[in-house]
Amino acid sequence: MSNPRDVAVIVGSLRKGSFNRLMANALSALAPASLKLEIVELRELSMYDQDLDEKPPQPWVAFRDRIRRADALLFLTPEYNRSVPGMLKNAIDIGSRPYGKSAWNGKPGAVMSVTVGGQGAFGANHHLRQSLMYLNIPTMPQPEAYIGNAASLFDATGALSDEKMRETASRFIQAFAVWVEIHAKKS
User: Strands 109-114 and 35-39: what pairing?
Assistant: First the structure.
């Protein structure tokens, strides 16, 4: 494909060595040529404050512009207290405002949750899906991706070393590529 779809990857963990970031990198390596994945950093985003909407901070403007340019969205999240990390929720809020000008609107998306625990961050995955539905992000329903025991999936260099998980991740990103082609706005 001459013009791959631009996928903004939103990683809910700020830690550089997070398992969600490692999985995002693995998905990028496994992605078909029809997708170009790029992690969109959240670290510079201050907490959302509606009072700043008239003159938003530059990191908000850059974040919103980046999301608007994207053809599709891929969210990877750990689970904090049965929900998403605060920084991820903050990014969602910043991208959705001001009211009526959401950068997220209509972009196809998918969710993968990755955690060291055994339940695969099921709670965070579903909390995130609830927000995405409200934001009019058509979110891929299948295959669902709740990845547990993440500490055993990567080698010392951060590469995805578990062959079964590599196959699962490959099926996920291939299904997402089809989802994006069905739901992305034609440019």
Answer: unpaired
pTM higher than 0.70: yes
Asked, as a colleague might, if the bond just before 98 is cis with ω within 30 of 0, I would say: yes
Q: Which residue has the tokens 């959401």?
A: 102
What pLDDT score does 187 carry? 47
CA 87 – CA 92 distance, rounded (Å) = 9
Residue 118, Cβ neighbours under 10 Å: how many? 8
166, 64 Cβ separation under 8 angstroms: no
Average pLDDT, the chain: 95
Half-sphere exposure of 186 (CA within 13 A, CB side): 1
Using one digit for the tens of pLDDT, what is the confidence trace for 111-157?
Answer: 999 998 877 688 899 999 999 999 999 999 999 999 999 999 999 99
Contact 86, 43 (CB under 8 A): no
